[in-house]
Amino acid sequence: MGKIINFPKHAKVAQAVESSLKLPKAKKRNIGSTLIKIVWVLTVLLFPLLELILLLDCVFQFFRMLYYWNTKEVHAGLIFVLHFLG
Question: How many domains does the chain have?
Answer without folding.
Answer: 1
